[in-house]
Amino acid sequence: MNIPLSDIYVDAGAIDAVSRVLASKRYILGDETAKFESEFAQKLGTRYAVAVSSGTAALFLSMLASKLEKGDEVLVPSFSFIASASPIVDVGAEPVFCDVDPETLTIDPRDIREKITRRTKAIIPVHLFGHPANMDEIAEIAEAASLQIIED
Ligand SMILES: Cc1ncc(COP(=O)(O)O)c(C=O)c1O
What we know:
Blueprint: H1 12-24, H2 30-44, H3 55-65, E1 73-77, H4 86-90, E2 94-98, H5 109-115, E3 120-123, H6 135-145, E4 148-149
Parallel strand pairs: 1-2, 1-3, 3-4
The protein binds pyridoxal-5'-phosphate.
């Protein structure tokens, strides 16, 4: 089976949307972004969605919004892109690397349980290669230990 790694699906609607943004000459923020944020929030069933320039920026802003600071520990999978862990260091907190499940390569909830300490403040599950992390179990652990979840 041949699975193309970077064959990104772009339909006419996406090309129209990009053309509208280019024609508007408003490439940052603007009406199109506001409309996207509101439609995306509605699709997810959340009150807010905030569009940013990159995944790294999204993670960094999430760290700030979660009020993570020096001395806090954040559980993160040992297998991911560097940006899953680097914003933790940027806010002065400490990444604590957890094993991944060999089947899905996502963070292993059993190792999350092992690595929780009094300093643990958050868990960053990373959904990778189309495999979602085990969010039911992670949400249960987070609830029991009063930890924040920041999904990457
Ligand atoms: C799992 C994961 N998190 C975060 C990022 C960072 O995204 P960006 O390159 O848009 O900053 C990437 C990028 O490949 C990623 O694979």
